[in-house]
Amino acid sequence: MSLKQRPPPRPSASTDSSNTSASQSALAPVAKRQRREAGFLHGQKVLIFHEDGSDTPFTREDTEKVMDMITGAGGRLCSSVEAADLIITKIVAATRLRNSLTPEQVAGKRVLHVRWLEESVTLGVAQPMGGKYELVMSPGSSSQPQASSSSAMPPAVAMTSRQTGSMENPVVTLDRAVSVRPPRWHNTALSCERWSPLVSPNDDLVRELGWIHRDRWLGRGDSPGSFDSNALAYARAIAQIKAAPVRLEPKHVARMKKKTLVLDHLGGKMLSLIEEFIKTGRIEDAEKAKRDPRLLGLIEFTKVLGIGGATARSLWDKDNCRTMEDVERVTQRGAGYGFDYLADIDLKIPRSDVEAIGTHVNEHLQLLAPGTRYTICGGYRRGKPASNDVDIIFTHDDDHAVDRLLKKLETRMRRDGSWVGTLTMSTPESSRLKGSQRFPTAHRTSGFDSLDKALIVYKQRARDPNTGVVRDIFRRVDLIAVYKRYYPTAIVGWTGGTQFERDIRIKAKQRGLTFDSSGIYRESDKVEVFARDEQHVFEILGLGWIPPEFRCTDA
Asked: Is there a single domain that holds both residue 372 and residue 500?
């Protein structure tokens, strides 16, 4: 493995277009199409088939996982055999299908075992459909699946990966026109200097380490200093492992122990945990964390806005809170903090619903300030099949149009019933006296940036993933109004994973700058440094360009 750093290739014009088109309201349909074309199931309508009385039924958890895999690969879920192009099932024998389906019903359709989908997603490329995966229902079919000719999926392939012992990165297709090969892997201390994909060969290991990280972050607060450094050590290790382009094997661990392979943040303790996982498929510390009622309670408490780790621990340890009702009683917080909507806010938001929210917000923005542009950031922009909340940043060429735009938007959206609650709102930009000094985050007394923002409860008519019923669902939506000159830094600051954003601030400091979502400043004289666009932000910070889909640094 070469550890020599090579700069990433500069993106082509078409790459730049695909990465920024979502921010242009006029191009939103194009961006939406391009994102769907990125997956190997692009354009396919997929039915998850449940057999009545099956010995191996899809559980609710199984179903949600399969739904995420289908939508993440660009497919569309459907609810009828007639509408489906592809049927995914747990049935292993074609004759079992006759219990519920006829050959006529599945004529012209592919019926595949769920292993095909799982392995395609794991390897990042559609596996051949025939042979061991496919169930063929022809007249007089035997009890064993019949092999059919291999058939490739549509040409928009999400990823092809050479599963070798080298650290060679895969080719990733972001849309039909543009293929991106990440630069050859190299060791770096900062996650903002390496490409970290959404789907990693080591995701199962990352999930285990993620539980230990949660335990250190939330559960162990006796000594704040050691608590912070311990949690941060796991966050950095997770980000490093996410970027590894091949699955970590015993030979990699052996080389790291001999120092012939160097990965920052993977020291002796972390290597022992990796070895344990490679041998057993689990990490005992992680398994204990998953069963710890205190940790599980703290995780629930921190879902309430304004309750962080220290407050959650105090509620559990000192106030003896065990339920959300206890927390609401002790804190004396009402619906304004989202208690009434927690069950809904906990639901994942499919990409289609995220896009629908963005479109609806934009309709109001165009009526208030024609020409407003917006970008949906957060996990959605990183390519996640479903999001915890929706982050929408919007701007206008005219600063006057942005002033108090958030307040005006609230008035309109409350009128149509979509804005049902405000968890928090701050408008430092609109309220600041014109011509007064604007300081970066490090020189302000409160707030994580100085942008106008509202964290709201949004009502959306959508399908409940648990029941399949269309109803009003309450979502967490963050709305951020930005002057045009701060739009690039806002997009960067609201897109990356937590560790990516932490490291990009460290990188800025190394260059004598201060960075946050609301701008870049020289530390020596507090003079603002303006970026033309998102890629220029990376250039100012001395970083090679990393597409949003490769800023996925967290478990």
From this structure: yes
Residue 134 lies in a domain: no
Task: For strands 179-180 and 528-529, give the pairing.
Answer: unpaired
Backbone φ and ψ for 393, nearest 5 degrees, come out as: -110, 135
Phi, psi of 69 (to 5 degrees): -65, -40
Number of domains within the chain: 3
- One domain for residues 282 and 391: no
Contact 480, 465 (CB under 8 A): no
Compute the distance between CA of residue 147 and CA of residue 142 in angstroms, rounded to an integer.
12
Structure tokens at 467: 């029941």
Residue 472 has pLDDT above 50, yes or no: yes
More confident residue, 461 or 433: 461
Burial grade of 174 (CB within 10 A; 0-12, 13-18, 19 or more): buried
Quick check: 409 pLDDT over 80? yes
Asked whether residue 97 is assigned to any structural domain, the reply reads: no
Element containing residue 357 per DSSP (H, E): helix 351-368
The answer to whether residues 392 and 537 belong to one domain is yes
Interior CA angle at 309 toward 507 and 330, to 5°? Answer: 150
Q: Between vectors from CA 457 to CA 452 and to CA 463, what angle results, nearest 5°?
A: 135
pTM for the complete prediction?
A: 0.67
Question: What's the maximum distance between 2 C-alpha atoms anywhere in the chain?
Answer: 82
pLDDT in tens, 31-51: 444 444 447 887 788 988 875
Task: Please tell me whether residues 497 and 534 are part of one structural domain.
Answer: yes
In Å, how far from its chain's centre is CA 258?
A: 35
pLDDT digits (tens, 9 = 90+) for 128-147: 776 677 877 654 433 333 33
* pLDDT band at residue 220 using 50, 70 and 90 as cut-offs: confident
